[in-house]
Specification:
It is built from 17 helices and 15 strands. By secondary structure, it is α+β, with helices and mostly antiparallel strands. It folds into three domains: about 10-105, Phosphorylase Kinase, domain 1 (2-Layer Sandwich); about 110-320, Transferase(Phosphotransferase), domain 1 (Orthogonal Bundle), CATH 1.10.510.10; about 340-450, Rossmann fold.
């Protein structure tokens, strides 16, 4: 099929100009043709007269068959997706005539343009800007994952920064929807996706794991902070697999002004095993919004690359053992459970601590990808009755430190544990108001409390 040119009419829409030329498709700005020219075309007048984009797959003899597969995948998936984080589909054409997808043109720019502008001007993104954009991307991902869809090609060109502040995810040609056939898995024998953002499990053929998108988001956060990809732009299969045994160059070595907790977040996204990453984009959103709750470990504290002997040892271990991707978390992965452990700060005796730790571990043990939240509620009277006449902030800080210490004593102090001090007279009311999603309440029996 020949490329369209300005002035061509397709199903009642006039081609204005070519807006973008990608490896698999072309984007055209289009307007509705006048009714007197094409009154018999039957086009949808409700789609509006302008500000439309027509995406047409590349189908010349030189183009790969993957372009058609990607068009069919996006043609199936896009109508099933809802919400402001995906493009609004306004129409589509058939393969028998002119295949296309018609979408609204959005105000804003892609992350790719944002990165090019930063590179050209030498501007370094502040931590506040990185958090704002990272949170917006993670929120968009969570919305997509809740609809049982994995993007699988989260590169800068496919992330659109809307003028209103939210993120719109573009190009679902390589995506995987749980309720639809996976044409790429059926028809392709090689990993599909952009090499710079492919998760290790994608390289070995695993598709449909939402944590692959979290890996890609970690790549984007790294690029936004440093203006370089953590593993470059590999081309060969061995170069692709090197991310399994290699660690990215420390962000803090390149940007000493960025805090350790930011590197901790990014490197947690980039773990080779999906089980070691954030299990949900919602967990990532939480940490970006509450950095003081992040426990800084070896990932965040790293300022130098691992030594050559260490890297060589990891390489030989991989060559001996291979790479075994993590088990997928199943259909409930987009809705990870939260185990909420309510702590009565007035009674922290050893028997109570022992029983709390045992109950929490039992609850966490049967829930894949679960997060533990330790919560205590401080009444307003506690501030006025404080013997040390501490401020409200100091009282909250003291209780927060107590919760972190308790988590350590209980043996549940992990990257997936958070601590919260709430103010209010009713524990049940505060929990109901502030719980981030469905929670599992751990409640001790009366006999245990009275030991």
């Amino acid at each position: 099929m020949k490329a369209l040119k300005p002035g061509d009419i397709v199903d009642g829409y006039r081609i204005v100009k070519e807006a973008h030329r990608g490896g698999m498709a072309r984007l055209y700005e289009v307007c509705m043709a006048s009714l007197d020219e094409h009154e018999e075309t039957g086009f949808d007048q409700s789609a509006g007269h302008c500000n439309l984009l027509m995406k047409v797959p590349r189908m010349s003899p030189r183009d790969s068959s993957e372009t058609i597969v990607s068009f069919e995948v996006e043609n199936m998936i896009l109508p099933m997706l809802k919400g402001k984080h995906v493009p609004l589909l306004r129409g589509k054409g058939s393969l028998q005539k002119v295949p296309y997808l018609l979408m609204e043109q959005l105000p804003g720019q892609t992350l790719l343009h944002w990165l090019l502008e930063a590179q050209q001007t030498g501007r370094k993104a502040s931590v506040d800007e990185l958090v704002r954009l990272g949170t917006a991307m993670a929120v968009a991902l969570f919305s997509l994952h809740r609809q049982r869809c994995c993007h699988h090609d989260l590169k800068p060109a496919n992330v659109f920064l809307h003028r209103d502040g939210h993120v719109v995810l573009l190009d679902f040609g390589l995506s995987r929807h749980a309720h639809l056939p996976d044409l790429h898995a059926e028809e392709m024998r090689q990993p599909v996706g952009s090499p710079a953002v492919l998760a290790p499990e994608q390289i070995v053929g695993v598709r449909g794991d939402v944590r692959s998108d979290i890996y890609a988001l970690g790549v984007l956060l790294y690029v936004m902070a440093t203006l370089r990809f953590p593993f470059g732009m590999p081309t060969g299969r061995m170069a692709l697999k090197s991310r399994i045994w290699r660690d990215p160059f420390p962000i803090r070595k390149l940007r000493a002004d960025l805090p350790a907790w930011f590197q901790e977040i990014v490197f947690r996204c980039l773990r080779p095993l999906a089980a070691d990453r954030y299990q949900s984009a919602a967990h990532l959103v939480f940490d970006l919004r509450h950095p003081t709750n992040i426990k800084i470990g070896a990932l965040g504290g790293r300022v130098n690359s691992p030594s050559w002997p260490s890297r060589t040892q990891r390489l030989f271990r991989y060559l001996r053992q291979g790479y075994q991707p993590s088990e997928q978390t199943g259909k409930d992965a987009p809705h990870p459970p939260i185990v909420l452990l309510a702590i009565n700060h007035a009674d922290d005796s050893e028997p109570v601590r022992r029983q709390l730790g045992s109950a929490a571990k039992r609850a966490m043990g049967g829930l894949i990808g679960a997060r533990l939240a330790l919560v205590t509620v401080v009444r307003p009277d506690d501030f006025s009755l404080s013997e040390d006449h501490l401020s409200q902030t100091e009282v909250q800080r003291r209780h927060l430190n107590m919760l972190h210490l308790l988590a350590s004593q209980l043996g549940v102090d992990s990257p997936f544990t958070s601590c919260h001090v709430l103010e209010g007279s009713s524990v049940a009311l505060r929990v109901a108001m502030l719980a981030p999603c469905t929670v599992t309440l751990v409640k001790l029996e009366e006999s245990v409390i009275n030991e």
